[in-house]
Structure formats: structure tokens, C-alpha cells
Amino acid sequence: MSSETLGPETPATLVIVGAGPRGTGLVERIAANAPELYAGPGLEIHLVDPHPPGAGRIWRAAQSPLLWMNSHAEDVTMFTDESVEMAGPVRPGPTLHEWAGIDGRTFADRQVQGSYLRWVHEQAVAALPPGITVHHHPARALRVSGPRDGRQLIRLEGRDQPLAADLVVLALGHLDAEPDDEQAGLTAYAAEHGLVHLPPDFTADSDLSALPAGEPVLVRGFGLAFTDLMVLLTEGRGGRYEGDTYLPSGREPVLYVGSRRGVPYHSKIGYDWTGERPPLPRFLGPAETDALLARPGGFDFRRDVWPLVEKELGFAHYHRLFTAHPERTAIAWTDFEEKYEAASEGAEREALVASAVPDPRDRLDLAALDRPLDGVTYGSFEEFQEGLRGYVESDLGRRHDAGHSADLAVFLGLLSVYGQLVRLGNIGPRWHGFFSHLASGPPGPRLRQLLALSRAGVLKFVGADMAVQARDGVFRASSPTVPGVSVEARALVEARLPEPTLRRALDPLLRRLHADGAGETPDGLLRVDRADGRVLDRSGRPHPRRFALGPHTDGRTPGAFTRPRTGGPAFRQNDATARAVLVFLRDLGADAVG
Asked: Which backbone phi and psi does 219 adopt, to 5 degrees?
């Protein structure tokens, strides 16, 4: 045990850096587990965050009311339920739509979600047992220091005296980053030639005033950051919609958007689940995850994990197709299930599916879903505009048609898979992009707005594998989707969040943590113990007094909140960390009494 212990009447001290939804979730789990695990003389919890507790930066009140959540209000909860595999007690609570008294199918704006998160924070604090107090410090944490076996010191911006803590948890959320070499070069080029270059950023924080009305703007990125950009530069500049028609204000720029895939993320599904759920996990569950972790030489994601992911998602898809839409299948589900389980990856499984599912549109093709423009070319720029509008319209139609409910089963499969992959730690960036494209796309109404903007000439599509060159005093964009065509502009926007790497994080605490020996993955994430979130050093040794949760770690999850009854990997992590924190502090106090 530690060389430092608490006095018999001295309360323990916990510092949580980050008071957004992840920090709030941790406080909620401390409140839930403390009656069982902590009977010390008291506990002081210090929350360090320049933004108000609960909402944090992303969900703060001070942002445009035009920006929506990306999930239906009924699919957002901060509370545990029986589906979360954890040691602590379930403490149920209302979803966003139940709390706000709004239609569950509403895509609430982010200010409403921020209010919900502030309320959840207040409820979590109120549920703490007597003797546990919470203090908020509206400041940035600059550095954590201290010996492995002693109290930690957290230096705050603008404060002379550091906070002393028995334990520290980093729940930092999404972070800014310094530009990589390419971005730095583009920024320098823009400054030299009087151009505008907006590097990756949280869109609500970007200064978009430099993008002039009526002028072409290249946009690289077609995910959620792009959706926010699209809204702020159209409705945010006075445009409006009448049905499926966009009426410009005249203050909009002309957006030329492309990306690696060249298409927007798939629409959110617009119908409810009915009937039997696929029995998940089936091919990628705890046993398979344990086996991967136990491999003496480690595992390779593409070779060892991805085939299990494909098989699991296929199982979810075909289970739903055969049980809910049997008229579109050629054999009985029991026969297919047996053969599917035994079939090897590749040609054998493809032959089975082809024989059992007559319509190719009912077969799951993950490669086509992920990269629909691979190998596709158009003869002209205008032909591509029409073609991509057709693609988006088709996606919207399918995603709002319960006759294609196998798509929703795949979504449930993706959530199940994510819950297992979190345990594997460093799996590389491919999975997260794939998951976001299929499962974390925009609300259907946003894609209908995109179509209206395209028809109005305010938004134009560039294509897949969009390349940007800085030459001849301008930016130029091109894509193999439309060979021989390029677009010239004096402004370039990188519509994506910064990569959460330790080396390039602008957050000084993480930079110093890295410099002081914290471990990082090959793609730059902070390494943490999969069991409880303790920070690992470069030799893989866990720090007894430092924990980390969130997107800057290799234990990152789909989000700090989740759909009800889907297992909530973040909730499971919060519970494990809260219990480890309470046990450590309890034992520290017991040593003092002893």
C-alpha cells in the first residue's frame, strides 16, 4: 500500500478533470457504489473544468439553437439499466425525451441536451451519501505530478496553489490539437496568399465569418462536423426551407464537399424495432474477446478481429431477414443458421447467402456500404451531382422503411461489437470510422436539407478520395469519381474533429503526461488498463493513482451517453473506475486507522 495514508479524520480527496457527461457519469457511479464500498471519514470530489458541470464544452448553452443532437430523444440516456454488465447497482432514470416531455422521435437541439446533462449532474451530486462533497473549479488543469505512491498535485490555470489529491481521473472529452504537417503547410500557404484555411475543429467553435457569401469554399469531410457546418452557413446565415425547397438569403458561400468516401454518413434509421431481437453476441462475445486478449503474440485487427466483426454483423442481419421477412428467403432459418455458422469466410459464405437470399438488395455487403463510390466514375460534374442525389434519396428511403429492418438489426450488431472491442484496447482507427459511417450518421431531415441545398446550387459534391492541392495561389480539389474535373477556391474548411493524439493535443496536461512517460498506442491514444481505466506507462505498468476515461484513451466508446438497453460500454467503464477509486480510497483510510 501507499507510503502516504490518510489521517483517521482526514477526508480523502479525488480530482476529476473534466465535468462534462463523462465526469458526470463517474460521479453518478460513485454515488451508486459508495454505500457498498466506502465508509471513510469523508470524501471531497473536486471537478476541474472551465465549463459548467454536466454539459461541458460540447453541450454548453452558449451555441446556436440550430444545432441538433444526432440521436432521437428517446435514444439518449445517462442512466444505467439491466443491460449494463457491471458490478455496481443499477440506478434507473429518465431518457432525454421522458425528462424534457418531448416526442421521443424528436432530434432535440443541443441546448436541450445540455439542460438534461446539467440536471443529471445535479441529481448525481444529490445522491452522494453524507460526507461526500463536490467542489467545482472553473479552470483548466495544466499538469498532474506526484510520486506513484503519494498524493498527486494538479496545477490549475490562474491559481498559485495546486490541488492535492489522493487520486486523479482524467475525463477530458474531445480536445483541440495542434495541426499535423499537412495542416500546418496549408495554413502557412493560406497566410502567404491571402486565402482562408480552417483546420479541424469543433464546428461550433470555428470562426466562419471569414467565408464570404457567394464564393466557392472547399470542404473536406462529410460526417457530423460537416452537417453542423452546412447548417451554420445556410440557415445560420438567414436561409430557410419551404418543404423540400431551400430559399437562399444570398449570404451563403457555395460549398464544394468531398471526403475519402465521397458520400455523407448513412441516415439515422427512422422506424422503431418490433418483434424478436437477434441473440447477440453470437460470434464476437466475451469468450472470443478473452481468447484474443490471451494470444501470446497479440492480435492483428484486420486478420483476427475483422472476420469476427463481419460474421457477427451478418448474423444480426440475416437473423432479422429470415425471422421478420421470411418471404424474401429461400430456405428455413434453422438450416441457414447451421450452415452460416459452419461456413468459412469468403467464397463459401457468399455462396450460401446467394443461394438462400434471392434479392441482392437483401444481402449484407459491408464493403459497398462503407465505400459506395469505389470503382464508380461519372462522365461529368453535373451527372455526378444527380447521381449522388439519387444515392442519398435511396439511402433515406431505405433507412425509413421498416421493410428493410435488417438494417436496424445491423445497427444493434454494431453496438454489440463495440461493447467487445472496447475491451481489446488499441484496435486502430479503421473501426471507429466504419462505425460512425454506418451507425452515427445525421438525422433524416438533415439529409433532406442537404438535397434541397444541392438542388438550389448552394452545395455541390466533389467525390471520393478528394485530393486538395495548394498551388497557383489557390486551393484546388479533385476526385477520381469525376476524372479530369477540378474545383478552385480561395477557402478550405477541414470539416472534422482533431485527432485525439497525445503528442499533438493542445491540452497541456496530456502533453506533460506524455512527456512524463505515459504510454501511447501507435495511433497516439493514451493507454489505459482495460479493467478499470488506470493510466499505463510505456512499459505497460498501471499508475495506482491516475485514471483516464474518454476519446483520448484506447478505451474510447461510442459516447458518454447511450441508447437505453444497449449495454452502455461507457457506463460499464464508469462503474469499474468508480469502484476501483472507492476501494483504493477506502483502503487508504483503513491503513491510517490501522
From this structure: -125, 120
Residues of each domain in the chain carrying CATH 3.50.50.60: 12-177+500-593, 181-264+442-494
DSSP state of 404: G
**pLDDT at 3 (0 to 100):** 45
Burial profile 544-563: b = 16 or more Cβ within 10 angstroms, e = fewer? ebbbbbbbbbbbbbbbbbbb
Bridge-partner residues for 468, per DSSP? 477
pLDDT per residue over 365-390, tens digit each?
999 999 999 999 999 999 999 999 99
Query: What DSSP letter does each residue of 509-535 carry, written as one string?
Result: HHHHHHHTTB-B-TTSPBPB-TTT-EE
Q: Judge whether 547 and 574 are in contact, CB under 8 Å.
A: no
Query: How far is it, in rounded angstroms, from Cα 571 to Cα 28?
Result: 10
pLDDT of residue 354 exceeding 50, the answer is: yes
C-alpha cell at 341: 455458422
Helices (H) and strands (E) in the chain — how many of each? 16, 19
Exposure string for 368-396, b = 16+ CB within 10 A, e = fewer: ebebbbeeeebeebeebbeebeebbeebb
Cα–Cα nearest to 90, from 28, 166, 47, 146: 28
Which has the closest alpha carbon to 313: 367, 270, 373? Answer: 367
CATH class as words, domain 12-177+500-593: alpha beta
DSSP state for residue 149 in the 8-state scheme: T
- Measured between alpha carbons, how far is 224 from 230 in angstroms, rounded to an integer? 10
How would you classify residue 131: left for phi > 0, otherwise alpha for psi between -120 and 50, otherwise beta? Answer: left
Taking only the tens place, the pLDDT of each residue in 535-556 is 999 999 999 999 999 989 998 8
Of 119, 134, 113, which Cα lies nearest the Cα of 31?
Answer: 134
Contact 312, 416 (CB under 8 A): yes
Q: What is the pLDDT of residue 16?
A: 98
CATH for 181-264+442-494, options being 3.30.310.70, 3.40.50.300, 3.20.20.80, 3.50.50.60: 3.50.50.60
In DSSP notation, 333-374 reads HHHHHHHHHHPPTTHHHHHHHHHH--SGGGS--HHHHH-TTT
Best CA proximity match to 284, nearest among 276, 274, 293, 296? 293
